[in-house]
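Hi all, posting the design record for the shared folder.

TITLE: backbone redesign
STEP: 1 of 1
STRUCTURE INPUT:
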């Protein structure tokens, strides 16, 4: 991993055996990142930065606005449309919810790792029953449920019916989570995004366009 500095912003270079071409990413967790194929010259990273500079600067500005919105939460976190207050307690090692308050580890340590583990546990508890109900209504069983923290995907459905959902969906309003569940359940019948898929989704989640639009606009803010 190497750091490179351009006049307007910092970026980092990461090599990947799976990469077939140069890719540039901008996200809240990693900032500006250039992914290079293993044998590519590092000059290609600088060339990509120069070529994509206007797009990168736009995305960096959006990222700064996103970070400001997250910082404005203060000592609170969103949970399916609710706002939970964070209450640090020295000596605590696990997060516990008490009403509209989350008791989190106190002291100088970063409580985000333990908070994320709590959200992951809650994601299984929230998504599992929704998925069971939706597949029962659709008459299309699934083969398994996995909770993950993907950087670029909210959910997925494999050809074998294995479902995967991003725990960060619990930071979104409840109807958005319900939309994503229905989106994946429809993939049990139609694996692609053909007109047939969208008609099926519209019949089961009539407001899906509004919820999908919310995710596009606000998805970057769904971080701790």
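Okay, here is what came back for every position:
SEQUENCE:
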């Amino acid at each position: 991993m190497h750091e490179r500095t351009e006049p307007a912003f910092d970026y980092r270079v990461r090599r990947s055996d799976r990469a077939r071409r140069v890719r540039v990413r901008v996200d809240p967790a990693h900032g500006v990142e250039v992914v290079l194929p293993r044998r590519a010259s590092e000059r290609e990273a600088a060339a990509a930065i120069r070529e994509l500079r206007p797009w990168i600067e736009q995305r960096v500005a959006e990222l700064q606005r996103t970070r400001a919105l997250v910082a404005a939460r203060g000592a609170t976190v969103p949970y399916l449309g609710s706002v939970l207050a964070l209450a640090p307690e020295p000596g605590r090692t696990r997060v516990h919810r008490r009403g509209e308050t989350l008791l989190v580890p106190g002291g100088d340590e970063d409580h985000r790792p333990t908070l994320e583990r709590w959200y992951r546990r809650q994601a299984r508890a929230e998504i599992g029953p929704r998925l069971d109900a939706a597949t029962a209504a659709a008459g299309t069983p699934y083969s398994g449920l996995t909770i993950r923290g993907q950087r670029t995907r909210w959910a997925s459905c494999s050809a074998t019916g294995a479902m995967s959902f991003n725990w960060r969906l619990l930071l979104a309003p409840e109807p958005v989570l319900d939309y994503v569940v229905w989106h994946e359940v429809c993939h049990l019948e139609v694996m692609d995004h053909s007109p047939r898929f969208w008609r099926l989704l519209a019949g089961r989640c009539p407001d899906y366009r509004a919820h999908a639009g919310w995710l596009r606009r606000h998805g970057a803010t769904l971080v701790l």
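COMMENT: The longest strand covers residues 82-89.
Let me know if anyone wants the other runs.
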